[in-house]
Amino acid sequence: MALILHAGKTNKNAFKTLIAAEYSGVQVELAQNFEMGVSNKTPEFIKMNPIGKVPVLETPDGPIFESNAIARYVARLKSDNPLCGSSLTECAHVEQWIDFASLEVDANILNWFRPRMGHTVYLPPAEEAAISALKRGLGALNTYLASNTYLVGHAVTLADIIMTCNLYLGFTRLMTTSFTSEFPHVERYFWTMVNQANFSKILGEVKQTEKVPPVQSTKQPSPPKEAAKPKPKDEPKKEAKKEPAKPKEEAAELVLGGRDKFPGYSLLAQNG
User: Fold this and answer.
1) CA angle 143-147-153, nearest 5°?
2) Which domains does the chain have, with CATH numbers?
3) Contact indicator for 38, 55 with CB cutoff of 8 Å
4) Is the dihedral of CA 45, 51, 52, 56 positive or negative?
């Protein structure tokens, strides 16, 4: 019985699981007629992942979300799978490079890509910081790959699958040849990986982008229109009643007590 993966056909995070499945002999199928922004907002999907993010894998023991966790699960369905490393040290190195791929590569590619697509506010200094951080990560990766074909050992592991899928967005949408030429060993590594049979079966033909996409405007919801307020009816003027002067204690309470009735707001830092 095939496991069902809820994600779009071009989702690079879904590619991780699908490629791992090819190497592991596990049958995984994409959910039929999945539509991003629609399917992942249904009550049935929210039960599987309360945040509504994709991908999500349906298993006999319940749903699994987060793409790296799903890929690990699929790889470990095969006992003694070399994708996970052949020793305790290799297993640790696989996990090490998975973290590196997520924190140093994927995070910075997304920080460069998402504002340009209008998903978040575009700020040139923030983009410069993201590109600088990405180059730092690619530089470290390039140095390592100068003397290594794969990230761990002498064959493809889950670390290579996840690293390649994270680089995929960069190569196909952001990083032109003039950008990646600074990292020749990363270039060689990426093209070696995507041309492996189990990769190309999922990814198809991969082409490097020729230009960085232009900045798109951030989509903001238009404010709701206020309903016209009805004109108040003319009422006969009433003579204002004179109230007795309030004691000093009550006046003091109105001034000082206002601090409790209208407390100030604290500014809280928000994580991106």
Assistant:
1) 110
2) 3-76 (3.40.30.10), 83-203 (1.20.1050.10)
3) no
4) negative
